Here is the input.
Amino acid sequence: MKILRTIGDVRDAVRAARAQGHRVGLVPTMGAFHDGHLALMRHARAHNELVVVSLFVNPTQFGQGEDLSSYPRDEARDAALAEQQGVDILFAPEPAEIYPDGFATSIHVSGLTDVLDGAARGPHHFDGVATVVTKLLGIVRPDTAYFGQKDAQQVLVVRRVVRDLNLDVRIEALPTVREADGLAMSSRNVYLDADARRQAAALNGALSAASDLFASGERDAEAILAAARRVLADADVTPEYLELRSATDLRTLDRVDEDALLAVAVAARVGAARLIDNHLLKGAG
Ligand code: PAF
Here is the structure.
């Protein structure tokens, strides 16, 4: 596996692979790899001849008071893990390579970013994500880019950018990878102490209660949300949000009775960590 730091070097490597007719897969990451990242890398490996993983803790998607400076960073560990998954190129640029002096462009996706994490973290968050992902897609020009479904809103935002800007790339989202007790894997789980770790399991517990009620035939959004709310309250977790929205455009739903994908999303601060999770409620009606 090669570790590359410059846009020029990545472009040369991708160009050489393309000249041989190779398919190119990109897994954008901020490092601190867990099994969710590794599953994306293995999936990319199985479907492409060249697999590029970007490792860049993107400063523009963090707000004031968020965890940019403390975000877990261990490039040597990440590089070893990526290599074990058969990754060809780890693109690990310095911030100035991505945001040189004079950088002045920002991608804003309206509507989709006004709610859930966009409302909770502020508009800078998804502007930062959309801008850096657009840059990474422009640098690597992959056939397919792979994301985790845990960040369901991020996936919707990226898909919208790709559609609206006619970017020639396929976006594939892979299922959330979970710990044995259901906690969604996240780089931020390292912030959890033992008590917080126990509480954190309530996020998936709450979503599972909502999913179970939906599966038993309940279609009233408030009733479904109430089931989730009870599990969080029992675990003493105060959600930042707990909402039931269309999985295609994030509009709110009073009833879950259309034949569509539906997302229940919850974000909560547990101990020092801000955690998010979601379930898709499929095929209503
Ligand atoms: O999901 C992440 O790790 C980041 O938001 C991403 C997509 C790599 C952009 O910085």
Notes: The chain has a mean pLDDT of 93.
